[in-house]
Hints:
The protein has helices at 8-26, 30-34, 38-53, 72-82, 88-91, 98-108, 111-123, 242-278, 290-318, 324-349, 360-368, 377-393, and strands at 128-131, 148-152, 155-166, 173-179, 190-196, 202-206, 220-231, 235-236, 280-281, 284-285. Helices cover 49% and strands 14% of the residues.
Amino acid sequence: MSISELAPAEYTELRAEYRAFMDEHIYPNEAALAREDDAADMLVRDLRARAKEAGLWAPHLPPEAGGTGRGFLAYAHLNEEIGRVTWAQLIFNCQAPDAGNGEILHEFGTDEQKERFLRPLVEGDARSFFSMTEPDVSGADPTSLRTIARPDGDEWVIDGRKWFSSGAEGAAFGIVMAVTDPDADAHARASQIIVPSDTPGVSIEPVPVLGHRGRGWSTHCEVDYDNVRVPRENLLGGRGAGFLIAQKRLGPGRIHHVMRWLGQMQRAFELMCRRALEREAFGGPLAEKQTVQNWIADSAAEIQACRLMTLDAAHKIDAGEDARVEISLIKFYAADALSKVIDRAVQVHGALGITDRSPLSHMYAVARGAHIYDGPDEVHRMVVSRRILKAFARGDGWTFS
Length: 401
């Protein structure tokens, strides 16, 4: 069934299935999952098997790729449930960075690459990482990368250093962005190459990051490539197509993040409202205080604005449109809204909000990174303003549609 055939009632039914699974299996186990110990790993495997059996598996990919996806618009609705708990994306096998890697392997991979790398990813038998950002150059400008991949007979030889390669610890392979044509145009210098993690010369070291102090999937790693040799057929897409593939990957990846943030915002909002009604201070419930009422009203407006912007962008992607401006708009706007809503919820909870007795403390720590990863807010603002001003310079003006 194509996304155009889904009726509003079917979105509701899909969400209800995920919500029921969350209520039964994920919320009750949230604290256990967050411990990230051996028992948590066993629990993850059990819950993933249950999700797969229930048909709630890999909703970001279409059936022909092995997933259960119904398009971006449907996925946006589902993430309002999935995004409420950080671990839920892992349970349903739609976690970053595997979701984005799966999408580009499906679109650009050869039959052999799909069989060797995509299939185990979709089946849940392996994880992956995306290795683009480097410590010595701006992560917002992938045209300036320094990691080199040179051809040598039937192999690529890779040398360089990456960091913030999310989920690299324990991953089976990475997709590495490396310069293959140093003298080419800035947007044709780099290629993407699939590198198994056990290849000699690959060294992976987790980097402690605010809100991510665990192991395995939740890590953000520094990865060194020292004379790493992989077959020439591990090239993903064409030589020099690295930037193009990155744009294809990062665009959907950004909207995936925003979809999950909607779940985080809505959960924080609900916690804030309930706490405001329950907590007594200065002769009455917090809900009667004008400041708290303003926080609730502002949060409701910001969440709904984010929802409608996200659904609009998802609809345009399903229709085959580029939606680059729409994605950049929601990336910086939603990151700001996410931080504000969670911050207000913490404030309403008072000291309780910064303890581990509330999910808000972890949500708050993780939310800070939203302003940085997959392009900092400032860059997305620049992209939006430049696109709009170019349209006016051509005499076309700008139409909100």
